[in-house]
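=== Structure Prediction Worksheet ===
Name of assembly: unnamed complex
Input type: mixed (protein and possibly other molecules)
Chain count: two
Listed entries:
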Amino acid sequence: MTHTLPALPYDAAALEPHLSRENLELHHGKHHNAYVVNLNKFIEDGKANATQSLEELILASPDGPVFNNAAQVWNHTFYWRCMKPGGGGEPTGRLAEAMARDFGSFAKFKEEFAAAAVSQFGSGWAWLVAKDGKLAVTKTSNADLPMKHGQVALLTCDVWEHAYYPSYKNLRPKYVEVFLASLVNWDFVAKNFGAA
Amino acid sequence: MSKHSLPALPYAYDALEPHIDAQTMEIHHTKHHQAYVNNLNAALEKHPHLFDVHLDDLLAHLASIPEDIRTAVRNHGGGHANHSFFWTLLGKGKAGEAKGDLRKAIEGSFGSLEAFKKAFSEAAATRFGSGWAWLSVDRFGKLVVHSSANQDSPIMDGLRPVLGLDVWEHAYYLNYQNRRPDYVASFWNLVDWDQAERNYKDALLR
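=== Predicted Assembly ===
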């Protein structure tokens, strides 16, 4: 199959002032797109299995360029859906109960998630994941992702520098704070939790 | 005992324009490099006798660093060493071309200066995520092109750096955005080959 760049689920300027239009246009139109183009090139060259779905490719590929590009296609598609204009606030219902149970409180979850996002050294991702019905915060390097570790991804924050440099430059902690306060799409996270 | 400190840049922030812009240089030096220095010092506070050890020796013997600060010394000590090394390698108008013993060694190892530049640029372009591209001298005096992840230093692998190029996105994003290959190409306009030659001679003495 040929992989395609999904459209952003909102306008590139819709997350302003938290993430600038330029920031999103580069991130989606250049970075995310490059991973799609690279992956299709690997398929064309016979280096990646043309019959496998994106998830199958990710799970079947060892560390290396095919895995990196396939996983980054998935990570970015997931990341866009984790945000929405007018996001932030707090989860409700079952997800809120699970957070209170597994982190102590929503505030504690936020603290743990922000710490993971800020302390991921180099490029990578911070995650809220579910495994065996329990919630956990994790971080991964470069393209690595929860499905490779038997976990279900519920929420992610991209902490590659390209994700925030146009808007925040070196101030990753500020970006992470704004992500949690004003961008997270908790309906999407709750949906992922319901399916986990 | 002395704490590590941020070395002054050997040129003005705008000295490398248009290849590297002044804002990138200022943030890179006063924010990113400074943070590595601060975090390294904070880690060493827990084992202050290590303030007396040369940074290169800490990096060459990571396995002997107390476990509770080993990752911090690797990341932030590596970051401090790599950036201090990087600043001295750059200088507009100093570029010229490799000469002398280093030129001969490069031609001996890679066939030609052009072939070396191609291999180095390839290492810089293909390092996935954050990291560095290097020309180093190995334990047996031979030149090698390689790359490292994050702030890992060649010194951690028993190598001695001659040239290094920072390919963390913070090194080039304001000026080049996603176009890392353009940034890498511009590096060749900035290399101070006299400094590279000194690095090469130092490396052979160790």
